[in-house]
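Work Package 4 report. The design task specified in the project plan requires that, given a folded chain encoded as structure tokens, an amino acid be chosen for each position. We show below one input record used in the internal validation round.
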């Protein structure tokens, strides 16, 4: 079943409340039938996976797993109070450190400051339904959320607040409007914010500390959108993509662009493979990057090891639903989630240890 990422059904009013979850046993077993929904890693060997297992009511129950050996062994560390949404949005996990975690189903946002023992509802001040939270992250003294509202016109806004805050506020000046709007935020090595509309307008800001921002030359031409990656060895990488479905259905024109420093001017490389619609993007190093794309019921991982001069494509399973959470915690190790727990083909987490050349499916036991 195809997920509807862009139409989020209205949930209950977002009020601030703390939702306690019982502490997990030190070495809890993985629930039977566990299917991954999202993954987030703090290092090449230490990672977390949020997943769901069949249960009585509401039908799927959430579990949070952790590994310290690269996925060879897993233990359950929590039971987050969140359900699979009826609209098949991804339930996304973002882990900032050992104790700071976020969960979002696109319209609800939860935060934990104790490693998943207790969860607090975080609301977005003044947001109008329907909307979708596309990114949640944290850098130093600020939490950031990228939120798109699907009214007429569409509006994408950056929200922010202090760590532990129960309410995030819109950041003045960080809003774009149009028929179609989008944005991204990256925090590794410095904060970057990119926002655009209708493949005609693009704005870009940088900050060394997440507090004071400076407008900078956009990473991409105005007729494309930017997917940001963190700074790698001082260099800044972005994926610049045209509108989905061009030059033909199930395709996207895309190029890797790079700047020599935060706030520097970007230059582009040769065109990357066009197969598939963008799902995720991440760079492992200044020269190695991977694009996760889906098209024709198949998932693809397009990878380059020479800065975009040449590319190789890995074809994953035929789940063909979505590829989420692509990330490289170091230059060799990367992860990606294929599918959704309640999709017909289920879901899996793939991991690479050679910078994206080969991928293997992780098992949960």
């Amino acid at each position: 079943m195809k997920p509807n990422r862009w139409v989020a059904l209205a949930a209950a009013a977002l009020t601030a409340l703390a939702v306690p979850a019982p502490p997990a046993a030190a070495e809890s077993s993985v629930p039977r039938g566990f299917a991954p929904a999202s993954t987030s890693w703090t290092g090449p060997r230490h990672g977390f996976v949020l997943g769901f297992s069949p249960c009585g009511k509401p039908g799927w129950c959430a579990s949070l797993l952790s590994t310290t050996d690269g996925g060879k062994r897993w233990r359950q560390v929590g039971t987050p109070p969140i359900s699979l949404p009826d609209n098949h949005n991804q339930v996304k996990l973002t882990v900032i450190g050992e104790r700071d975690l976020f969960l979002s189903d696109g319209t609800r946002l939860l935060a934990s400051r104790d490693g998943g023992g207790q969860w607090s509802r975080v609301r977005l001040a003044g947001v109008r339904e329907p909307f979708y939270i596309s990114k949640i992250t944290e850098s130093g003294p600020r939490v950031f959320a990228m939120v798109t509202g699907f009214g007429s016109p569409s509006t994408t806004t950056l929200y922010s607040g202090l760590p532990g805050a129960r309410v995030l506020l819109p950041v003045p000046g960080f809003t774009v409007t149009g028929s179609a709007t989008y944005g991204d935020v990256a925090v590794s090595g410095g904060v970057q914010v990119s926002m655009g509309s209708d493949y005609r307008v693009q704005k870009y800001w940088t900050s060394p500390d997440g507090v004071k921002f400076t407008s900078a030359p956009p990473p991409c031409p105005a007729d494309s959108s930017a997917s940001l990656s963190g700074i790698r060895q001082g260099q800044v990488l972005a994926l610049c993509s045209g509108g989905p479905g061009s030059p033909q259905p199930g395709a996207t024109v895309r190029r890797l662009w790079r700047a020599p420093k935060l706030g520097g001017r970007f230059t582009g490389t040769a065109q990357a493979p066009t197969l598939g619609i963008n799902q995720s993007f991440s760079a492992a190093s200044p020269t190695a990057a991977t694009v996760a794309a889906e098209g024709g019921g198949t998932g693809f991982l397009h990878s380059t090891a020479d800065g975009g001069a040449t590319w190789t494509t890995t074809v994953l399973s035929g789940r063909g639903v979505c590829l989420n959470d692509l990330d490289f915690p170091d230059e060799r190790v990367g992860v990606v989630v294929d599918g959704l727990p309640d999709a017909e083909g289920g879901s899996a987490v793939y991991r690479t240890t050679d910078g994206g050349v080969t991928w293997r499916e992780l098992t949960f036991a």
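Confidence is low (pLDDT under 50) at residues 1-27. Validation will be extended to a larger panel in the next phase.
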